[in-house]
Amino acid sequence: MINEELLQEFGAIIKEYSKNEIIFNQDESARNYYQIISGAVKMNNFNDDGKEFIQGIFYKGQSFGEPPLFIDVKYPANAETLSESSIIVLPKTNLLKLLYQHPEIHLNITKSLANRLYYKAIIASEISSQEPEHRVLRFIDYLKDDVHKITGNFTFKVDHTRQQIADILGLRVETVIRAVKNLEAKNEIKIIKRKVFR
Predict the structure, then answer these.
(1) Which of 5, 28, 99, 140 stands 20 to 30 A from 127 (CA)?
(2) Which domain holds residue 145?
(3) CB 42 within 8 A of CB 85
(4) Residue 125 lies in a domain
(5) pLDDT < 70 regions, the chain
């Protein structure tokens, strides 16, 4: 989202993370801006029974964890890598200097956060009112169309596991497996070597 060279001009460093490494924990103070160079990161919470709820998954070129930086609150979720990841990290004070000097970047961040809010509203609506097949398909279409911007039939490979989709949509994994099979039967998706394509 922000040019990597510009981030480094303002004091950013590149950090390497192993798979399943915690970047920050829920209830920690927000001190840095994070942008993914390679890999993937999930933000999650756990309920009292230990069940995971995935707030979002972020990929190459995306940033995560910004809202607490702007409103001085603690992180509402944990951030954990899903694979080996290279992440550019910029301290909050340096980010604010960058944004004051580059208002067009500030506008881009505002647009990105607005897109995420819109997506969260859509998902909340889907979770509360739609059938599992519809919810799964809508989520996959969001990834294909809005996150990765891929066109064409069956050109997008879903990298999420069935369990991750269940955790994001508030479904049981068995329900997601059944929904995926039904969507394949309706020719909405294809399953090739256990991977889902849309």
Answers:
(1) 28
(2) 131-197
(3) no
(4) no
(5) 126-129
Residue that is last in its domain, among 62, 84, 116: 116
* 85-139 confidence digits (pLDDT tens): 999 999 999 999 999 999 999 999 998 888 888 877 777 776 666 789 988 998 8
Last residue of a domain, one of 93, 116, 139: 116
Handedness of CA 169, 172, 173, 175 (dihedral sign): negative
Within this chain, do residues 23 and 102 fall inside the same structural domain, yes or no?
A: yes
- Work out how many domains the chain is built from and give that number: 2
Domain shared by 78 and 159, yes or no: no
Helix H, strand E, coil C: the string for the chain is CCCHHHHHHCCCEEEEECCCCEEECCCCECCEEEEEEECEEEEEEECCCCCEEEEEEEECCCEECCHHHHHCCECCCEEEECCCEEEEEEEHHHHHHHHHHCHHHHHHHHHHHHHHHHHHHHHHHHHHHCCHHHHHHHHHHHHHHHHCCCCCCCCCEECCCHHHHHHHHCCCHHHHHHHHHHHHHCCCCEEECCEEEC
Q: What CA–CA distances, in Å, run from 40 to 7, 18, 54, 83, 104?
A: 19, 11, 13, 6, 26
